[in-house]
Amino acid sequence: MIFFIFAVIAMSSPAHAIYSSTFSLSLQGHEFQPQYGVQLIFNEAAKSRLLCSAACSQNPSCRIFDYDSSSHRCRLFE
To answer: Which residues form the Apple domain (predicted)?
Structure first.
């Protein structure tokens, strides 16, 4: 099962560097296909979709991530 998630991260105040994130789940079986290969910034294993989303949230460059629950593959994209 592949979950494809859009994470939109917006800085709410440049002086305080506070970030907020929103995400939505796509149907199972969908995988993000970036327009350019350089958009991939992380490709590692994660134990859960939640940990993959946390990795994206902690990376200021991350805008989109996807997670494959069968292989535990977590990919972060710009």
So the answer is: 27-78
Residue with token string 């079986």: 29
The pTM (predicted TM-score) of the whole model is 0.65
SS3 37: helix
Rounded to an integer, what distance in angstroms lies between the CA atom of residue 66 and that of residue 75?
A: 5
21, 34, 25, 22: which is closest to 2 by C-alpha? 25
Q: How many domains does the chain have?
A: 1
Is 3 a residue whose pLDDT tops 80?
no
CA distances 46 to 18, 36, 50, Å, are: 25, 23, 9
Q: Which residues constitute the domain of residue 57?
A: 2-77
Res. 13: pLDDT tops 50 = no
